Amino acid sequence: MKNQRTAIAERIRGLRDAADITELETAEKTGVDVEIYRQYESGELDVPMSYITRLAAFFRIDPTAIITGGDAHARSFYLTRSGTGPVIERVRAYHYEALGAGFSGRAMEPFVVTVEPSLNDRPHLNTHPGQEFNYVLSGRLWLSIDGSELVLNPGDSIYFDALKPHGMRALDNKPTTFLAIITA
Known about the structure:
Blueprint: H1 4-19, H2 23-30, H3 34-42, H4 49-59, H5 63-68, E1 87-91, E2 94-98, E3 108-115, E4 131-138, E5 141-145, E6 148-152, E7 157-161, E8 166-170, E9 176-183
Antiparallel strand pairs: 1-2, 2-3, 3-9, 4-7, 4-9, 5-6, 5-8
Helix pairs in contact: 2-3
């Protein structure tokens, strides 16, 4: 069985091949350095969820096709039972469970995210189009947004402009779980 990073890389490469465009053109049109794009497409580098959404918009497909290899079909509602959403393992420290993958034409991407404790005091900062909402379910989350550092406890939430550099890590040497909703 292929690992998820390899499967996503193959889907991305297949989309580009089907569109008959170059790696450079895809990278330029989706706002990423061509070398980074090549690492995504080869499976050498984990593809951030924000970039999956950007690629899906560029190729005019549902992000579900890149994440799972299937199509979303639900138009009235899509029910995700606890623990059954498609899992996206970006890196070992982050575990994403997609909650709306079966709904076609989503205006937002909802996830349950678990961040494992890390020895890294300064996580990588990320940016992506749209807005993001995070609601902490368990654990404590350190969050940096555009130079501001915050600590969120269970029940705390934050809504922010995702174009601002942001990064997070679990505190107290325990995993943190939160609901994340990302708009495109």
